[in-house]
């Protein structure tokens, strides 16, 4: 046996070997440090870019954050951002299990997967399985490159950089936003909306499996073009999920029976005119939250398309605006009936189009008259043929009511009384008040100055301006711009009318007659009280209806966008029924109309009014102070006149007047009577028994009226 080695000699030998290796170890350590420094420098000098993930589609959302409309990115891609919390957890589990089982633990590159892929490649002489992690795929999506060996090393480097800078949820956010799903669809949210018509927050197992596999070959696996390939790929994912225990055997079998989508669905397309407006107004913003109620918006768009006039006339359209007037939030915005119909100029926003407002400005004129203490709702006013300088307005049906209360004149939308009040209130003043409130009127270039036709629609305005005005009536006279989303400020408003005047207007318009096919407000079937006003522009070009209750203001416009006439369609028979139908769809108002403010003069009979408010005289009548007063001497007001019959008809009723300035004009029940204007008597052939209202008018605007009962005599 050999003697044991001397321990001291062994130690000396080891030290000599370490001495020889020391320089190499030092160089190795320095090399590693140098590589690390270089990598850190490169990391700082060339950080990974996430700009592509931030270049998403412009989106317009409703009040609950649901998508109303999206726009493609400049390259024409639907790219909707998505976070892990926006996606069904089942989909995330399946995605990680199928694509990257060690995603939660690796630093961006899965060394075990790389070793496995290399070993399989060497054994089989070809690529058997990949080693690309979700982080590496995300790196490729963020910065697309050639799929070669150099590109693979670039992916790995970028993946390490991503993991160093972002947590796993942020990396998943990039992937969920950028992954391709066929055609111009990018991101799981766009894919779920296009293939399944729903958000990815609730997916079936079959849907989730299809979304997991589509990014592997989006063009080759599109279910609308290659359904068999798509089904096979989906079922492969499902089978793998069964093997890994993500799904039970029964769940796999049920999911494989789910049908595949056979076509791409359009992405949500609601409130398109508002979406265009917001996008154009803030071109740099990609997210536009609004106050729109998506369900109400969808219902009203359908209602606008189904209107009878739209079905029957290919060039007719409808616009609707709904506002919660207490804070002026716009809840629904329908700019046209059919956005893509060129015959209806569907892409023109009729809410902002300048049109003639018809009679819809009359409440403002009367409101200013109330504030000026020129009139009261119970003031008597004449509805008789009257000339205002060179302007001679007529009523809608060419009939006249004679003398009646201001309340009735506004409810019946009579033209002569409205012009008479405007003549004293002042057209220029009305225009100035609207301009100060941010609602300027538009004038014909040939007549740039406001005139008396203003109150009958002889100006231009928009549905948005009218809804803003009526929301001001509902808010006690405070007018402020409408608000489309939380970003819009809530200014205090501009005082246009007093609370007293607005209370008078609300009381009057709530009692205005409604269309015959609408249940009257206040009945059991319609518990809400709606103040409303209709209007029709010259030549039946525009039909309007505006209304408000305790909580909401609604505006409706119906017509032809090209401005051509639409005979037979006017505010009362065309727009008003739709207005009341819209109110039926709104939530019941939380409150009732406001109690009368201080200053409201409520009277039981006209005698309680101050003398100057009992009767409103037009200025043409006041200009002829020497005219003898006009009086109706027969028949006597309140009497019953018995008329005999001859040949089956009642004999003519004699009418006589005293005073006034000839020529005289006679009206019976609002209709002109053929009579010699230079005589003070006339004869009227009754067409039956009943109440008759007889009015006589003279040259200077005086009138006298009497209501009598016609009966058959012996």
Structural description of this entry:
The structure is a single chain. Strand 6 and strand 7 (329-334) form a beta hairpin. Among the domains are: 52-256, Penicillin binding protein transpeptidase fold; 624-712, Sandwich (Immunoglobulin-like), CATH 2.60.40.10. The protein has 714 residues and is of the alpha+beta class.
Summarize the structure.
This protein is α+β, with helices and mostly antiparallel strands and 714 residues long. It contains 22 helices and 24 strands.
Key descriptive features of the protein:
alpha+beta; five-stranded antiparallel β-sheet; 36% helix; Immunoglobulin-like; single chain; Penicillin binding protein transpeptidase fold; 714 residues
Protein topology:
Elements: H1 7-45, H2 51-54, E1 59-61, E2 67-70, E3 78-79, H3 89-99, H4 111-124, H5 134-142, H6 149-165, H7 168-178, E4 185-186, H8 188-196, H9 205-213, H10 227-244, H11 249-256, H12 272-281, E5 287-289, H13 294-305, H14 308-312, E6 317-324, E7 329-334, H15 362-371, E8 380-383, E9 402-405, H16 406-411, H17 415-425, H18 427-436, H19 463-474, E10 478-479, E11 494-495, H20 499-510, E12 531-536, E13 542-548, E14 552-559, H21 571-585, H22 619-623, E15 631-634, E16 640-643, E17 645-646, E18 649-650, E19 653-658, E20 665-668, E21 671-672, E22 681-684, E23 690-697, E24 703-712
Parallel strand pairs: 1-5, 3-4, 16-24
Antiparallel strand pairs: 1-2, 6-7, 6-14, 8-9, 10-11, 12-13, 13-14, 15-19, 17-18, 19-22, 20-21, 20-23, 23-24
């Amino acid at each position: 046996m050999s003697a044991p080695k001397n321990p001291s000699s062994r130690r000396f030998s080891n030290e000599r070997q370490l001495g020889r290796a020391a320089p190499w170890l030092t160089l190795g350590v320095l090399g590693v440090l140098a590589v690390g420094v270089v990598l850190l420098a490169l990391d700082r000098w060339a950080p990974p870019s996430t700009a592509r993930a931030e270049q998403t589609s412009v989106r317009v959302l409703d009040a609950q954050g649901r998508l109303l409309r999206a726009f493609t990115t400049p390259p024409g891609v639907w790219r909707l951002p998505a976070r892990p919390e926006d996606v069904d957890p089942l989909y995330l589990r399946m995605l990680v299990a199928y694509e990257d089982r060690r995603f939660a633990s690796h630093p961006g590159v899965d060394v075990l997967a790389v070793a496995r892929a290399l070993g399989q490649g060497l054994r089989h002489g070809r690529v058997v399985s990949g080693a690309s992690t979700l982080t590496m795929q995300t790196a490729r999506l963020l910065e697309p490159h050639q799929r070669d060996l150099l590109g693979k090393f670039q992916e790995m480097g970028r993946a390490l950089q991503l993991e160093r800078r972002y947590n796993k949820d942020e990396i998943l956010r990039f992937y969920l936003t950028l992954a391709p799903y066929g055609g111009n669809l990018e991101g799981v949210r766009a894919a779920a909306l296009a293939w399944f018509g729903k958000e990815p927050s609730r997916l079936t197992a079959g849907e989730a499996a299809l979304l997991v596999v589509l990014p592997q070959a989006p063009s080759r696996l599109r279910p609308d073009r290659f359904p068999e390939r798509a089904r096979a790929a989906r079922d492969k994912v499902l089978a793998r999920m069964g093997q890994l225990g993500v799904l039970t055997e029964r769940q796999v079998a049920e999911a494989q029976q789910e049908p595949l989508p056979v076509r791409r669905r359009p992405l949500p397309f609601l409130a398109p005119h508002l979406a265009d407006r917001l996008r154009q107004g803030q071109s740099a913003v990609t997210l536009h939250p609004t106050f729109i109620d998506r369900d109400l918006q969808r219902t009203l768009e359908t209602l606008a398309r189904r209107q009878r006039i739209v079905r029957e006339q290919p060039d007719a359209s409808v616009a609707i605006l709904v506002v919660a007037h207490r804070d002026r939030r716009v809840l629904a915005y329908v700019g046209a009936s059919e956005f893509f119909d060129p015959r209806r100029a569907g892409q023109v926003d009729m809410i902002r189009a300048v049109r003639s407002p018809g009679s819809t400005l009359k409440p403002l004129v009367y409101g200013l008259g109330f504030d000026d203490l020129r009139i009261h709702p119970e003031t008597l006013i004449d509805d008789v043929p009257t000339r205002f300088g060179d302007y001679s307005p007529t009523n809608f049906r060419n009939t006249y009511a004679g003398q009646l209360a201001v309340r009735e004149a506004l409810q019946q939308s009579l033209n002569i009384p409205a012009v008479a009040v405007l003549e004293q209130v002042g057209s220029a003043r009305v225009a100035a008040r609207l301009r100060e409130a941010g609602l300027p009127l538009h004038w014909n270039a040939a007549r740039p100055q406001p005139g008396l036709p203003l109150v009958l629609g002889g100006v231009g305005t928009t549905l948005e301006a009218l809804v803003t005005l009526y929301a001001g009536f509902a808010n006690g006279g405070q007018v402020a711009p409408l608000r489309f989303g939380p970003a819009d400020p809530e200014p205090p408003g501009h005082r246009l009318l007093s609370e007293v005047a607005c209370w008078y207007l609300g009381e009057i318009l709530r009692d205005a007659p409604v269309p015959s096919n609408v249940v009257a407000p206040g009945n059991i079937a319609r518990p809400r009280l709606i103040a409303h006003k209709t209007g029709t522009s010259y030549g039946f070009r525009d039909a309007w209806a505006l209304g408000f209750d305790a909580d909401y203001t609604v505006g409706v416009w119906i017509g032809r966008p090209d401005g051509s006439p639409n005979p037979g369609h006017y505010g009362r028979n065309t727009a008003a029924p739709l207005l009341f139908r819209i109110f039926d769809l709104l939530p019941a108002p939380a409150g009732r109309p406001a109690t009368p403010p201080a200053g409201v003069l409520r009277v039981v009979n006209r005698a309680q009014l101050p003398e100057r408010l009992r009767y409103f005289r037009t200025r043409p009548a006041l200009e002829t102070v020497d005219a003898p007063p006009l009086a109706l001497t027969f028949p006597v007001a309140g009497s019953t006149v018995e008329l005999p019959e001859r040949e089956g008809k009642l004999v003519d009723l004699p009418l006589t007047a005293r005073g006034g300035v000839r020529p005289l004009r006679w009206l019976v029940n609002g209709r002109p009577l053929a009579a010699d204007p230079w005589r003070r008597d006339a004869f009227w052939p009754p067409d039956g028994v009943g109440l008759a209202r007889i009015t006589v008018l003279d040259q200077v605007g005086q009138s006298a009226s009497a209501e009598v009962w016609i009966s058959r005599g012996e």
